[in-house]
Amino acid sequence: MSHLTIVIVSIIFLSPLAVSVTFAAESETPTAYSLLQSYNFPVGILPKGVVAYDLDTATGKFHAYFNNSCSFSLVGSYQLNYKSTISGYISENKLKKLTGVKVKVLFLWLNIVEVIRNGDEMEFSVGITSANFAIQEFLESPQCGCGFECKDSKLESFARRNTPFVSSS
């Protein structure tokens, strides 16, 4: 069976998402991080270690996959946890209906459900409240386990504002 026949059979029998993945496999697939940038997000909202992702470009529905869950702490008392699969909907400057990402504020774990880029600020919403951070804080991806405090990290620290999620949505 020739390569062209396989592609034609794929077009006829597979879903549109599967077809886009089939064609992407033939060319160089962008990384999850470069895909984020194409929607005007900095790479640092995803930790290092994404092993695969899928995206339905018609709806913006995405999944990003890690080998395991990913947790780390950031200066400013924030702890983050990414499940092995995170999902949501992506569009220019907006991630919505996120699942699989939590932040620990004081002693509570809260789901981050939406991220909006507004100019040079990123707004992270946990539903009932949100917090804004400068985009410069997300120019590099943190590493699972140690965030930006890893010995091989290019950044010596990742200083967030010490203000917890306090402003109302």
UniProtKB/TrEMBL annotation:
Keywords: Signal
This protein's record includes keyword Nucleus: no
Annotated signal sequence range: 1-20
Transmembrane region(s): none
PANTHER family from the UniProt entry: DUF538 DOMAIN-CONTAINING PROTEIN (PTHR31676:SF86), T31J12.3 PROTEIN-RELATED (PTHR31676)
Annotated protein name in UniProt: Uncharacterized protein LOC104707864
Upper lineage: Eukaryota, Viridiplantae, Streptophyta, Embryophyta, Tracheophyta
Gene name for this UniProt entry: LOC104707864
